[in-house]
Each structure stands twice: as C-alpha cells, then as structure tokens.
C-alpha cells in the first residue's frame, strides 16, 4: 500500500514552514534581553523607593519675618590724636640786678596772680628813693618861686622853663627809684603753678636773667592737627569728646583753628580746652579727641535683622 506524502511532492512547503518558525523565534527575542531585564529591575525598584520616600518626607516651608525700621540720627565723627599743654606759661626774669635774698614759694606749689615769689636784696634802693623824694620837693619849691617871680616880672621866661624842666626830671627820678625798689620782688603774673625755679638763695642775677617759670593749667589745652580734607568741618566753639591717657573722659570746646596749613605737615593746628579747676590733669600727656562733624538720619541695620 502506498502512502501519499504531500511534502514529498511539494518540498518547498516544508521549507516555507521552517522559515516562518525561525523568523517568529527571532522576532520574539528582539523585544527583550536578559541584560535589559536585569537593568530595568533595579531602576524600577529605585523609582518605587523614591516614590515611597517622597510620600513620607515633608518639605520644610521657608520662615518669613517682617520687621519695621525707623530712621535715627547717625553722627559722623573725626578722631584725632593730641597732647595736653598749658593754657599759658611765663618765664619770669629779673628786672633789676641783685642778690637773691629769699625764696617765698617752693616750686610745684599753686600761686595766685600778684603773689610774691622771690625777694631780691634792696641794697641802697630805699635810700635812693628817699633822696629822689627830697630832690623832688626842692624842685617843686623852686618852680613855684620861679612862677611867682615871673608874674611880678622879676624873672625871665627862660629861667622859668629851666626850673620846670628840673621839676620834671626830679619826678622821673623819683618814679625810677620807686620802680627799682618794687622790682626787687618778683610776682606771679597769673594764677597757676610755680613749675620751676632757676635760682637759689644767695645767687646773683643780672637784668634779664631767668628766675622762675609759672604755668596755667586751667583750662587745660589739647593741641592736635586736622587734615585739609576735614578742616572745613571744624570750627570755633565746636564740642569734642576727650579721653586722656588716664582714661578720664570729658567734653571740651574747640577754641582755635589755624587759617594757614603747616608747611611741613600740610595740616591745620587746632586747640581744644577742657576744664581743670584743681589743676590735677598735667600737661604733656597723650589725649584722644573725637569731633562731631555732622549728623544725618539713617536706618541702622544689625545682624539680628538677617536672622
């Protein structure tokens, strides 16, 4: 019995079927690969984890603070370095020659204006004064007699003029004797401190020789220099904050500002005075000055404003 096989008569049909199966198998493998599946699996897990984290974590909100600011006056100041100095000082000299007879005040002590400080020997000056007084009395009588004779026509004009000149000369001699006697005592010219004595008892001094120094420390003066940039903001009567080297703080008043700059430093000297009634603050020490130049309204910002 013969079995008819359709593929034996048409073998191309079998070939077509095999090709179709192979093509289907190949096409099914192009969609996914093992490596793609491995890479996609962690990514999918990470996305799931991030989704869960985002759902459980709350995003913090920004804190906003509102502050109100008001303008307030702000001072612009100028800081300077200065040194203290006496208000005034004087070097006393002998106006007559003679021997130092007595020192009436010790150096370093306070003195008053007109107080006697040094006594020189009077020598014969008192006798010269009495002589001048007696001579003046004679010259005055002679002049009166000459006037009487002139009125009666018994004396000429020339004789009267001569007696008048003699009278004037006698008056001058008397005044000179008085001054010489007064100058044997040396007086303080103003209230202050007898800073130094250049003589001792028994010394001989000539006319013009220095005898003593007197300083006035009330008010105490602070000298400083202002640059040309700030000089137009500095004026007489301006208030200044003062800090002495002893840390004492007080207020002073500007009493002097130079009109011409120093040729060496190109700065303008100024003087600020402070009260020193008991003269306990000394001259020659350092001091800091702070001058108020101007005041403007402004908003003051602090670090707390930004926190």
Automatic annotation (TrEMBL):
Annotated Gene Ontology cellular component terms: efflux pump complex
Annotated ranges, domain Multidrug resistance protein MdtA-like barrel-sandwich hybrid: 88-216
Domain of life per record: Bacteria
UniProt cross-references to InterPro entries, sorted A to Z: Beta-barrel_RND_2, MdtA-like_BSH, RND_pump_MFP
Matches recorded under PANTHER family: BLR2860 PROTEIN (PTHR30469:SF29), MULTIDRUG RESISTANCE PROTEIN MDTA (PTHR30469)
Sequence intervals crossing the membrane: 12-31
Family in the record: Belongs to the membrane fusion protein (MFP) (TC 8.A.1) family.
Region (Disordered): 33-57
Recorded GO MF terms: efflux transmembrane transporter activity
Domain spans labelled CusB-like beta-barrel: 222-291
Record keywords, A-Z: Membrane, Transmembrane, Transmembrane helix
Record-given protein name: Membrane-fusion protein
């Amino acid at each position: 019995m013969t079995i008819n096989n359709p593929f034996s008569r048409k073998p191309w049909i079998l070939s077509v079927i095999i090709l179709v199966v192979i093509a289907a198998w190949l096409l099914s493998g192009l969609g996914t690969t093992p490596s793609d599946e491995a890479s996609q699996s962690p990514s999918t897990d990470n996305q799931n984890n991030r989704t869960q984290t985002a759902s459980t974590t709350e995003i913090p909100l920004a804190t906003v603070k509102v502050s109100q600011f008001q303008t307030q006056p702000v001072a612009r100041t100028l800081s300077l370095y200065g040194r203290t100095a006496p208000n005034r000082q004087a070097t006393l000299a002998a106006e007559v020659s003679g021997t130092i007879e007595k020192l009436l005040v010790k150096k370093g002590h306070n003195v008053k204006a007109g107080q006697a400080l040094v006594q020189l020997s009077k020598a014969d000056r008192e006798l010269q004064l009495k002589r001048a007084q007696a001579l003046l009395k004679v010259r005055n009588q002679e002049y009166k007699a000459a006037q009487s004779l002139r009125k009666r026509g018994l004396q000429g004009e020339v004789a009267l003029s001569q007696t008048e000149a003699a009278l004037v000369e006698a008056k001058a001699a008397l005044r000179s004797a008085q001054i010489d006697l007064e100058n044997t005592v040396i007086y303080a010219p103003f209230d202050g401190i007898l800073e130094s004595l250049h003589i001792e008892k028994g010394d001989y001094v000539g006319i013009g020789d220095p005898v003593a120094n007197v300083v006035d420390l009330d008010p105490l003066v602070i000298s400083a220099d202002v640059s040309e940039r700030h000089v137009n903001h500095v004026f007489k009567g301006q208030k200044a904050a003062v800090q002495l080297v002893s840390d004492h703080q007080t207020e002073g008043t500007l009493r002097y500002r130079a009109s011409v700059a120093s040729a060496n430093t190109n700065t303008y000297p100024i003087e600020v005075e402070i009260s020193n009634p008991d003269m306990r603050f000394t001259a020659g020490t350092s001091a800091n000055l702070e001058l108020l130049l101007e005041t403007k309204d402004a908003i003051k910002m602090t670090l707390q404003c930004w926190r």
